[in-house]
Write a structure and sequence with these properties.
The protein is α+β, with helices and mostly antiparallel strands. Helix 10 packs parallel to helix 11. It contains 14 helices and 31 strands. Helices cover 20% and strands 30% of the residues. A hairpin with an 8-residue loop joins strand 12 and strand 13.
């Protein structure tokens, strides 16, 4: 029987000492038809293992509505075919710069600050979820002939809390569910994080981007024996909307990787291939030492300045990393698979149809509710998307400032059908006062839920109230428009599209809405991945052939959205653009894709 174990000296496979040379690749950030290529790239770089998280909210967006947990199993089968081992990190919290850290909004909305604690009701829903998910892992453990060698209990818990009762219960649950391979925890190499996040009897690992000797010295104070492993070697970093892109020098990163291996340690390169936050699943952060400052939403691309970029190509880091890893490989490394092909030439998709946001919401939105105060997204069951709030300003009354308290994250406001401004968390009052009587509409959008730190699970929408002077306006009608309402086959057939010229004649209402167009790809030889650009467009989402590419935003730094090759088809293709603020030119452009990232290195830290 094949076995993988941990002892005082290190990792062992069938009793033979082994070093794990792993790379992170999240199955949910890569189109399934591209898994094989990306795994082959990791093997060619010199890795013998791949690590993935599991996002609970992707698989159970609403309580009891479990979707395609088999995707994890299919990915692990692809890992086995690639000749790699697998490390699985099922959470229930994953961070990962993913919406809400992977926790469903129905969980954080219901339990609030009780999540990730010993709370009995929270533990009950976690247990139900794990018993649904974990057979995918248990059946593919190495002792059963599969690739799974390690499973994580929670994730970076020491960065969040200190509930040892909860952690020990979770580790016990994994065992009850049939996980027999070694369990581990991972935390920053700081005393308080390792104290709060470690579990007696489980392997503790450390996460860092540099300073391996110092980091492992801290880890050894807490775990004197056993294998050393950097479970997240941050070889790059992620980007935020409105900020400069973060890059890391390839040779410097390769030197940091070499230092880890010179310590005799195993490593998991985070990320080996980052992929994409499709369908609005990107998370967000809060600035400041206590993560209670500036809101920082994460961009759609999760390229991460990794050795294998978003398009599956080798970057400047790939070959220096391969050179380092070759020294620790047991034999010659496999050759690189062929580089993915880009679209043969530029294609322009003319947008010929348009429907206003109001009509789109009537066709695809949830039922409208009415209540005294504005309901949050969580109370309405909206995870990704927007909510239209409608409220009356009584009158007659003189003009006073009008705004929204506790707004998260952004809202376009209309007063009597005329656009009055855009509100944000930092700027929550309209520039001009409003007199009564008047009808006010606020189209509020979530830009991604916080995935790390004490603000995890904070609600979205108007979390305080709509204020006229100091007076709350009550009697609020609210209607959600969820992104997954666009997912069903033929969903937009119910949308009453008119000619795009109607948008120009619709005044302020024509600046937003759902735009539709077609483009052709001639011949199968012309197919390949693409990069999509939106000249002059402000903020919203794009679909190609019903597949949501994710959010675009003129705030940058991301200007091009990745279109996986398997999404395109020979002949006619359809594109939808949901603009939420201000439409641009009546077309979008597809080309062979963004160039491999280069530029001035930034600072990698956490």
């Amino acid at each position: 029987m094949t076995d993988f174990t941990v002892d005082d000296e290190g990792f062992r496979f069938d009793g033979k000492p082994v070093r794990l040379l792993s790379g992170a690749l999240h199955y949910f950030r890569v189109h399934e038809e591209q898994w094989g290529h990306r795994l082959a790239m990791l093997a060619a770089m010199g890795l013998n293992c791949v690590e993935t998280y599991v996002p609970w909210n992707l698989h159970e967006p609403r309580e009891g509505e479990v979707r395609d947990v088999g995707a994890l199993g299919r990915f692990l089968d692809a890992v086995e075919r690639a000749g790699l081992w697998a490390i699985v990190r099922p959470g229930p919290y994953i961070c990962a710069e993913w919406e809400n850290g992977g926790l469903p909004v129905w969980v954080t909305g219901r339990f609030g600050r009780r999540v990730r604690t010993r709370d009995a009701e929270y533990r009950a829903v976690v247990e139900r979820w794990f018993r649904e998910l974990l057979p995918q892992v248990v059946e593919r453990q190495v002792v059963r002939g599969g690739p799974v060698i390690l499973v994580q209990a929670e994730n970076e818990y020491g960065s969040f809390g200190s509930d040892a009762v909860y952690l020990e219960w979770l580790a016990g649950l994994l065992r009850e569910c049939g996980v027999t391979v070694p369990l581990f925890t991972s935390d920053g190499p700081e005393d308080h994080m390792l104290t709060g996040g470690s579990v007696p009897g489980l392997l503790a690992t450390a996460n860092f981007g540099s300073g391996a000797r110092e980091g492992f010295a801290v880890l050894r104070r807490h775990q004197p024996k056993g294998p050393l492993m950097c479970m997240e070697f941050w070889c790059g970093w992620f980007d935020h909307w409105g900020a400069e892109p973060v890059l890391r020098d390839a040779e410097e990163a390769a030197g940091a990787l070499r230092e880890i291996l010179e310590c005799g340690a195993s490593v998991n390169i985070y990320m080996a291939h980052g992929g994409t936050n499709f369908a609005g699943w990107a998370g967000a952060n809060r600035g400041g030492p206590l993560q209670d400052g500036e809101f920082q939403p994460t961009v759609t691309s999760y390229d991460y300045d990794a050795p294998v970029d978003e398009y599956g190509r080798a970057t400047e880091k790939f070959h220096p990393f391969r050179k380092v890893l070759q020294e620790y490989a047991e034999g010659p490394l496999p050759a690189l698979p062929p580089e993915p092909r880009g679209l043969a030439g530029p294609v322009r998709a003319e947008l010929t149809g348009w429907a206003g946001l109001g009509d789109v919401t009537e066709a695809l939105g949830d039922p409208e509710t009415e209540s005294g105060v504005p309901p949050t997204f969580e109370e309405l069951g909206v995870d990704r998307g927007l909510v239209r709030y409608r409220v009356a300003v009584p009158g007659p009354r003189q003009a006073y400032p009008l705004g929204a308290s506790g707004l998260r994250d952004r809202a376009v406001v209309y007063v009597d059908g005329v656009r009055a401004g855009v509100l944000t968390e930092e700027s929550g009052t309209l520039p001009e006062p409003v007199a009564g009587p008047a009808e006010v509409e606020l189209w509020a959008e979530s830009l991604g839920r916080v995935n790390y730190g004490p603000r995890l699970g904070e609600p979205k929408g108007v979390t305080g109230g709509v204020l006229h002077e100091r007076q709350y306006l009550h009697g609020v009608r609210a209607r959600g428009l969820r992104l997954d309402a666009f997912e069903a086959p033929g969903a937009v057939a119910a949308v009453p599209f008119g000619p795009v010229e109607a948008a120009a004649g619709a005044g302020d209402a024509g600046r937003t809405g759902l735009f539709r167009g077609m483009f052709s790809v001639e011949g199968a030889a012309g197919l390949g991945h693409a990069g999509l650009e939106l000249p002059g467009w402000t903020r919203g989402f794009v679909w190609v052939n019903g597949f949501c590419l994710g959010r675009y935003w003129s705030a940058g730094p991301q200007r091009i959205l990745y279109v996986p090759g398997p999404v395109l088809r020979e002949g006619v293709n359809e594109v939808w653009v949901l603009e939420l603020e201000d439409a641009g030119e009546p077309w979008v452009e597809l080309g062979p894709g963004a160039p491999v990232r280069t530029g001035t290195p930034g600072v990698v830290q956490r």
